[in-house]
Amino acid sequence: PAAKTAEKKVEKAVEKKAAAPAAKAAAAPAKSAAAPATKAAAAAPAKKAEKKPAAAAAKKESVSKKPSTASKAKEAKSKATKAVEAVHATKAAKIVKKGRATKPKRKIRTIPRFLRPSTLRLPRNPRYVRFARFTRSPHHKKLDQYSIIKHPLATESAMKKIEENNTLVFLVDVRANKNQIKQAVKKMYDIQTQKIN
C-alpha cells in the first residue's frame, strides 16, 4: 500500500506541472480585464480602513460620554435645586393670588409666664487674671507664710495682751485656717504656738 500511495503522489505532481502553463495563459487576459475590478477592490479595503478608525473614535467618544459619579451628583443636585425652586415658586404664586394682607394667626399660649427673649452671651475675655478666693480654682492665690500673715497689730489692746497674756496679735488672710496660721508663725518667727483664737 505504501508503494501505491507514492505512485499516486507522483502522478498528481506531474498533472499539476502540465496544467500550470495553461493556467498562466488563461490568467493573462483575465488580469487585463480585471484591472478596474482590482482597483475598486483595493479602494474598498482603504475605505474599510478609514471606517475602522472612525468607528474606534466613535467608540472612544461613547466610552468618554458615560456619566461619571461627579456628573451624576451634579445632576442630582441640580434636580433637587430645581424642585426646591418650583416649591418656592408655587408658594409665591399662592401669596400673590391670595394677597399678603391676611390676618396673622395669634399664638396660643399654654403657660402664664412671659419670658424675656434670650440675648447674646459672650464668653469672658478678661484684660488681666482675677485671683479666685476658692482653693480649687486654677487662678487662686497660693497661701504661703507671707500671704497668710499680713502684719502684727500694734494697738493698745494688742500691746496689753503681749504684756499680760504673752500673746501676739496678727492680721491674717481670711482664707487661712488655724493650722495654716500655726505653720506660718513657726516658719517666720520660729515660735511654737500654744493656742490660736
Descriptive account of the structure:
The chain is mainly alpha-helical and 197 residues long. 59% of the residues lie in helices and 4% in strands. A two-stranded antiparallel sheet has the order 1-2. The longest helix is centred in the first third of the chain and has 32 residues, at 2-33. The model is unreliable at 26-38 and 40-47 (pLDDT under 50).
Summarize the structure.
With 197 residues, this protein is mostly helical. It has 6 helices and 2 strands; from the N terminus they run H-H-H-H-E-H-E-H. The radius of gyration is 57 Å and the shape is elongated.
Summarize the SSE layout with pairings.
Elements (H helix, E strand, L loop, with lengths): L1 H32 L1 H30 L4 H30 L46 H4 E4 L3 H9 L5 E3 L5 H12 L8
Antiparallel strand pairs: 1-2
Quickly list its features:
197 residues, mainly alpha, two-stranded antiparallel ribbon, 6 helices, elongated
Label the structural class.
mainly alpha
In the predicted model, the low-confidence regions spanning at least 5 consecutive residues are 26-38, 40-47
Total helices: the number is 6
Order of helices and strands: HHHHEHEH
Mean pLDDT: 76
- Tell me the radius of gyration: 57 Å
Neighbour order of strands in the largest sheet: 1-2
**Termini gap:** 145 Å
Strand content: under 5%
Q: What is the 3D form?
A: elongated
**What is the multimeric organization of the chains shown?**
single chain
